[in-house]
């Protein structure tokens, strides 16, 4: 016998299903990014710079130390295999406070799990988020993430210029108080994000940039990139600042990283609680054509580059995110003593840079503008970096220049809290 359909019974069943689904999972929280390293594809051996990725990961432990920009009451990590063609198996993972170098505070150490399991697999083209661990961490604290690879593991996703030393050792050592001698790397392998549960955080600011943001001129291991200084200023205000810089990054083209339009969603718009995007990109779009980096590329044009900027600003604004444009800094005489010295800068390239900067200042494409060009330019020759701010290569600011850049930013304006 067929049971008659009852609308009231169906509604009751739907309500029960909604009630069953409504409790929040244990991983719910007020998550913000406290640190990030934008994933890049490992490039081929014919490129000017070697990747220097490890040739063997089988039965080895990798420990990476990262300084977080904002504190919280719990921590989780994200591992990226965004450009991988093979799955990556993490046999064991561990989180602890760093006490300097590769040493950790054993009492703080906790095994990281993935959906409750002590191991996890990062599928090709995907990322893997760990379960949260209860750990109260402070802004500016150094955390050590240790990963063990049981099987042979291809490295196809990395962050090339990590500005910190990591260590790779044979065997399972994820929870060791210190690591034995091993292979030193300055890259970030698979580790792309550290997130913290920060209920009082006001929001996230993502800096999308190139090697100037990635910290090419900053002291290794000192956390003196300009987004590092900005994160330290912003943390007491409850603002998370993370660095989405990639050395060699461009607005419109790939090579050392995918173009900004392609990575915008992952590296910026998808970041938890994002309120503002600072865009400092374009030097490589202008400078690379005709150099050993891109010998066959046609010169960049004003129309193409500004169209890319407008698209980034429009996509951010469509997601309710403020966009802040940063002017492009001087680079006359860049990279002396290298194969790029003769072709990286020219009068025509600098004319385009200045025209782009005038457009950034006046076009009203962005909600606010940071004029790094005027801040860092040498008053005696505005086409060059001020000597006190130059790292020595006439392209990348050094530690003093990075601090000046961060100190020049009005946090209220960035978040839109003042007119």
Structure description:
Keywords: Signal. InterPro entries: GDSL, GDSL_Rv0518-like, SGNH_hydro_sf. It comes from Aureimonas glaciei. With 419 residues, the chain is an alpha+beta fold. The chain folds into two domains: 148 residues; 214 residues, SGNH hydrolase (Rossmann fold, 3-Layer(aba) Sandwich). The longest helix has 17 residues. α3 crosses α9. The N and C termini lie far apart (70 Å). 23% of the residues lie in helices and 28% in strands. It is globular. Strands 3, 6, 7, 8, 12, 14 and 15 form a seven-stranded antiparallel sheet that branches. Strands 1, 4, 10, 11 and 17 form a five-stranded antiparallel sheet that branches. Strands 19-18-20-21-22 form a five-stranded parallel sheet. A hairpin with a 2-residue loop joins β6 and β7. It has ten helices and 24 strands.
Structural descriptors:
alpha+beta; five-stranded antiparallel β-sheet; signal; 10 helices; 419 residues; Lipase; Rossmann fold
Largest sheet: 7 strands, antiparallel
Helix content: 10-25%
Low-confidence stretches: 20-25
**What is the count of distinct domains?**
2
Number of strands: 24
Instruction: For the record, give the distance between the C-alpha atoms at the N and C termini, rounded to a whole number.
Output: 70 Å
The rounded Rg comes to: 23 Å
CATH topology of the largest domain: Rossmann fold
Q: Let me know the average pLDDT.
A: 94
Q: So what's the overall shape?
A: globular
CATH class descriptor name of the largest domain: Alpha Beta
């Amino acid at each position: 016998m067929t049971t008659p359909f009852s609308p009231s019974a169906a509604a009751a069943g739907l309500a029960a299903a909604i009630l069953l689904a409504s409790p929040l999972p244990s991983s719910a929280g007020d998550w913000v990014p406290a640190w990030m390293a934008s994933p890049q594809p490992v490039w081929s051996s014919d490129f000017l710079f070697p990747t220097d990725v490890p040739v063997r990961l089988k039965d080895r432990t990798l420990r990476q130390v990262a300084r977080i920009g904002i504190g919280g009451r719990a921590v989780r990590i994200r591992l990226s295999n965004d450009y991988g063609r093979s799955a990556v198996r993490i046999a064991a993972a561990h989180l602890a406070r760093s006490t300097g170098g590769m040493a950790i505070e054993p009492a703080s150490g906790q095994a990281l799990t993935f959906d409750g399991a002590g191991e996890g697999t990062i599928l090709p083209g995907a990322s893997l988020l760990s379960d949260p661990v209860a750990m109260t961490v402070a802004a500016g604290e150094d955390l050590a993430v240790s990963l063990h690879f049981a099987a042979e593991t291809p490295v196809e996703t990395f962050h090339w210029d990590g500005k910190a030393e990591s260590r790779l050792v044979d065997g399972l050592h994820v929870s060791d108080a210190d690591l034995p001698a091993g292979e030193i790397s300055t890259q970030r392998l698979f580790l792309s994000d550290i997130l913290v549960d920060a209920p009082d955080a006001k929001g996230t600011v993502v800096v999308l940039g190139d090697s100037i943001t990635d910290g090419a001129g900053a002291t290794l291991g000192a956390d003196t990139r300009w987004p590092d200084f900005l994160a330290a200023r912003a943390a007491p205000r409850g603002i998370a600042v993370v660095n989405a810089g990639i050395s060699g990054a461009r607005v419109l083209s790939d090579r050392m990283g995918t173009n900004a339009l392609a990575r915008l969603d992952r590296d910026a718009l998808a970041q938890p609680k994002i309120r503002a995007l600072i865009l400092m990109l374009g030097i490589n779009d202008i400078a690379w054509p005709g150099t050993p980096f891109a010998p066959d590329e046609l010169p960049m044009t004003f129309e193409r580059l500004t169209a890319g900027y407008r698209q980034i600003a429009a996509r951010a604004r469509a997601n309710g995110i403020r966009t802040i444009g940063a002017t492009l800094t001087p680079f006359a005489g860049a990279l002396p003593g290298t194969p790029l010295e003769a072709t990286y800068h020219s009068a025509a390239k600098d004319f385009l840079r200045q025209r782009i900067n005038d457009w950034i200042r006046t076009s009203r494409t962005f909600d606010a503008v940071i004029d790094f060009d005027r801040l860092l330019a040498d008053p005696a020759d505005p086409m060059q970096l001020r000597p006190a701010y130059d790292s020595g290569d006439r392209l990348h600011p050094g530690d003093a220049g990075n601090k000046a850049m961060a100190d020049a930013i009005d946090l209220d304006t960035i978040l839109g809290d003042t007119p």
